[in-house]
Each structure stands twice: as C-alpha cells, then as structure tokens.
Write a structure and sequence with these properties.
The protein has 6 helices and 8 strands, in the order ααββααββββααββ. With about 200 residues, it is an alpha+beta fold. The protein has one domain: 2-Layer Sandwich (Heat Shock Protein 90). The N and C termini lie far apart (about 65 Å). The structure holds adenosine-5'-diphosphate and magnesium ion.
Amino acid sequence: MRRITVLDSSVANRIAAGEVVERPASVVKELVENSIDADARTITVEIKKGGISYIRVSDDGIGMDEEDAVIAFERHATSKIRTSDDLDNITTLGFRGEALSSICAVAHVELFSNTSSSKAGIHVVAKAGEIIKHEEIGHPKGTTVIVRNLFYNTPARMKFLKKDSTEAVHVSSIVEKFILGHPEISIRYINNGREVFFTPGA
Ligand SMILES: Nc1ncnc2c1ncn2[C@@H]1O[C@H](COP(=O)(O)OP(=O)(O)O)[C@@H](O)[C@H]1O
Ligand SMILES: [Mg+2]
C-alpha cells in the first residue's frame, strides 16, 4: 500500500507559514518590509494584546489595484522578481512572495489598498488561506493590512507564544530597528491605544 501522499495546499501552506510567522513580531516585520518596499514615507504600526489579537500596519506607499490585491495572497506571488536572473540583483526587502500567504494561512487578514487618491480602493477579506470577500472601498493612497487572531487555527504555535506583554516587547524591538534603519520614514507605533514611538521622518 502506498504510504506517501502529496499534502493538499491548505495543509502545506499552514506548515510553510510556520517558517515565516513565528510570533506577532514576525508579522509586523513582514508587513513593515512590504510598506518600505512600496516606497512608503509614513508607516503606522498598531498592536493590541501583544499583537495576538490585533496588528495593523498602514502605509502611504504605491498601493495595489484590485487584481494585485487579490493575487498577493497566493503563495509565491510577488511583484519584486520575475525570473531566476533577478535573484542575483535583489533591491527589495521581500522577494519570496510568501509573507501575505503565510500570514493569511494562520490568521484573519483584511487588506485595504489604493494606488491613487482620486479613485476607489479595494478591500480584501481573507481567512485560513482563502479570500472570502473583495469589494471596492474608500481608502487613501497606500495600504492597510489588519491581522486578527493570529494562530487561531494552529494551537501548537499559539501555545508557544509568551504572554502579551512579552510579545509586545518583541514587536517594539522590531519597530525600533526599523526606526533606526529608516530615519527618512515617519513611523508611528501604537500599543493598546497608547502611542509608544513617533518619528517625523526626514
Ligand atoms: N504594503 C504594500 N504596498 C504595496 N504592495 C504590497 C504591500 N504589501 C504587499 N504588497 C504586494 O504584495 C506582494 C506579496 O507580498 P509578500 O507576500 O510580502 O511577498 P514579497 O514581499 O516577498 O513580494 C508584494 O510583492 C507586493 O507587490
Ligand atoms: Mg514581503
């Protein structure tokens, strides 16, 4: 009898997600990197309960149109490289196309985006790796990603998380690194409704 089966994509994606998303701070890192890659001048990071219940990253970068906002959730979907030749000349922080799909495999994700301030934007709702809704919506130029209930469907990962305040410390130290590395970007960090850091950008 055959012992080997190929895992279906939802199981495979959940396993792969574990490589990218270890804790709330990894989500924040991936989302802020995406904002920087999108040429944001202003980034807001907001978390609640250590980021386990709520993470929001908003930027004023180039944004996505409807087509891109939907495909961005697919595994290996990226605008940053096209061929293997591009691998030798990477100028962005991301290029694997795995962050959004991984985050979405282990959380509830909402994405709002707009490529221009003069027309309607797009709102995408995704859960457990599937897009459950997309519609037009008003949003300024740029992108907002909201991640709720991290690891709601991966109890093993959830168990590995520390208490909210410890997870918040991990998030703070990631945000601090971005602040130090990117003085040209205005970064605001809000934890449980309280502004912790604000840099005006150069
Ligand atoms: N904040 C953002 N602003 C504009 N585009 C974004 C943003 N976040 C994600 N994207 C788009 O979604 C794609 C997939 O994102 P991600 O899964 O992080 O993969 P990667 O960053 O490795 O390309 C990106 O290549 C980019 O085109
Ligand atoms: Mg990325």
